[in-house]
Amino acid sequence: MGYKTTSSVVLYNNDSKVLKKAIESLLAATSDMSLFLIDNSKEDSLRTIINDIRVTYIHNPSNPGFGAAHNIAINLAIEAGSKYHFVVNPDIYFSGDVITPMVKYMEQNVQAGMLMPQILNTDGSIQYLPKLLPNPTTILFRKLKTPKKLYEKFINNYELRKVPDDLIYEAPIISGCFTLLRLDAIKEIGGYDDNFFMYFEDWDLSRRMHERYQTVYFPLVSVYHEYYSGANKSLKLFKIYLKSAYCYFNKWGWLFDNKRKMINKKSLAQFK
Hints:
The chain is α/β, with parallel strands linked by helices. It has a single domain (about 5-130, about 165-230), classed as Alpha-Beta Complex (Spore Coat Polysaccharide Biosynthesis Protein SpsA, Chain A), CATH 3.90.550.10. The protein has nine helices and nine strands. The chain has helices at about 15-30, 65-80, 100-110, 135-145, 150-160, 185-190, 200-210, 235-250, 260-270, and strands at about 5-10, 35-40, 55-60, 85-90, 90-95, 110-120, 170, 180, 215-225. Strands 1, 2, 3, 4, 5, 6, 7, 8 and 9 form a nine-stranded mixed β-sheet that branches.
């Protein structure tokens, strides 16, 4: 293959127009990157979505989940000798080269294991995706959003909303919708935990990475994310969300987690 940088998009019965926009954004950004399309759909109708020698399509109808499918691409990237790997949602799009600045930051900061850009809504407003480590009440509070005054104070702190928009900083949780991974770090800590079918798998990976490497928010470049918030609209997805939340807190601790308190305190200390 010969590419130093690889990327992957996991598919599942996607809208072809939205998906094509994501793929074309990646391929147009730089010529020096290959892309794995891991299709978890039952049918392979998306096989012909794009015709480019840099794209490898893999039909994966067993549908093991989001993270497990990305692991297929990550392992192939490691086998091919790739140094950096982008994990990308199928509802991401952007213009220009956001790839090179992110890779350059990784090259210049060897302790950075995971990097995400600024994520924007389609109207240009910011999605506040870098976060502190959650506890179960955090998840409940985010869903209820009440009482309003307490919620506003909580969410500003938890999602680091008062941090200057152009500041590069470390966050213990960074989103998996558009993430750059250092593959040497992935070899050390492991890829996505296959126990998460969907939701929380990026939080789990981010926390594991944060314990040994820097997990960096890099707002000097930005991408658009057509955020669907499926768990708030579909009972089936909400059940998957709850199962993943249970898996996450079983793994890292429910109300008692001394490391969580220490990591969050250290994260907030960056801004004092």
